[in-house]
Amino acid sequence: MKTVLNERHLLKRAIEEGYVSTKPTDTIRVLIKHHMRNQLDKTQVRQEVDRFMASHFKFYHPLKWDGVIHRMINSYGKSGDLKLHAVEQAGVTEGELDAIRSLDHVEREKFAFSLLVHCKIANQLRDANANWIEADKDVYDDSLLVLPAKEKRLLIHHLAGCGMLRLPSGISSRKVQLNYVDHQGEPIIVLREFTDFVYHYLKWRGDNRIIECVRCTRLLQRTSNRSKYCRPCAHEVQREQKTHWKRSKWYDGEN
Ligand SMILES: [Zn+2]
To answer: Which pTM value belongs to this model?
Structure first.
């Protein structure tokens, strides 16, 4: 997941280091909130955001970003929701899991679960978000789909056809509104960590290839009898082994 979950931390990094997040709109959002909290008017906020992006984001093209920034400033000006949020966790209820399971197609279910988790985070980051979420690359990546591109493109339409999503009228928008968010039920899956989180769904679904990483207890999907580390830990172990190998080689050379 590339969405930044701690806005206070993100703002601090932007101001101190000129850091722009992988999703630049996250950085733009916290800057807008920050300047609006400091009583700058819309034109001044716009100038500040432009200045920041032009000096710190090498792919920044003012014309390309014009519409997005304009809409964001208007939306925060109108809602007055200028609090800097920090998402600690996201809970999924039994009702939501049952709704997803009823799709009865594992790849579509994984996608619906990823959309739901992204939506729950968006609801926490933006007051009055009303279950809207942008079905962007991040949502697809987090679904860990095993599907040809052609079928991936049909996922949204399939879920909309089942009444699980509402699509806005504008065709260019990737925003969708989820109809299967349950605001009442008690969560039975609570995510506090968002690497490969779709495995939590597969585990609930009864996939016995889902096991815990022996190093950090994150979930992973066993692909062979030797699988025991999650992706981040597997990288770390590999790095450690390389360093160890280099060191032992160096000692051998010395003696
Ligand atoms: Zn691990």
So the answer is: 0.82
